[in-house]
Write a structure and sequence with these properties.
It contains five helices and two strands; from the N terminus they run H-H-H-H-E-E-H. The longest helix is centred in the C-terminal third of the chain and has 35 residues, at 102-136. The chain folds into two domains: 5-48, no CATH class; 62-136, no CATH class. It has helices at 10-19, 26-42, 45-48, 62-85, 102-136; strands at residues 87-89, 95-97. It is mainly alpha-helical and 137 residues long. The radius of gyration is 31 Å and the shape is elongated. Residues 36-56 are annotated as: Disordered. The chain crosses the membrane at residues 62-84, 104-124. Residues 36-46 have a biased composition (Polar residues). Keywords: Membrane, Transmembrane, Transmembrane helix.
């Protein structure tokens, strides 16, 4: 007696396909595969694939934009001052000298520049999002 696969749900068909001995029952295996293909062909594309949604970008409020702008100014001025003086104040009161420890000095200098640029970039991206939102209205 052959099972009636047309009465099976799609989940039951996949379960049957996964659990059947394909060597012992090749005809049943083919029947299950053809039933799955038939259902896939008859199912509209919208119901087969979930809709892809773009993650919403994080909005920055005015306070966050002001804070990031101030941080950018602080880090940028610290980097410029460090180049002028030749020293960066390090952790625990240790100064990183351009002459004595050039690797650590430049690592700290470029870290300051990176943080400043990152803050400016975040504010810039938020301003662009706001402009695009105004144009689309």
């Amino acid at each position: 007696m052959q099972p009636d696969y047309s009465k099976y749900t799609v989940d039951e068909l996949y379960e049957a396909l996964g659990s059947i001995d394909q060597h012992a029952y090749p005809q049943r295996t083919e029947n299950i595969k053809s039933e799955i293909q038939q259902r896939a062909a008859n199912t509209p594309v919208e119901t087969r694939t979930p809709p892809v949604t773009k993650p919403k970008s994080k909005e920055l409020g005015l306070g966050a934009q002001i804070f990031l702008s101030l941080m950018a100014v602080i880090f940028l001025s610290a980097a410029i001052y460090a180049l002028y003086v030749g020293e960066i104040n390090g952790a625990r009161g240790a100064d990183l000298s351009q002459k004595d420890q050039p690797t650590l000095f430049y690592l700290s200098f470029f870290t300051h520049l990176f943080v400043a640029c990152y803050c400016v970039l975040q504010v810039y991206k938020q301003r662009k999002r706001e402009q695009l939102a105004k144009k689309s209205q």
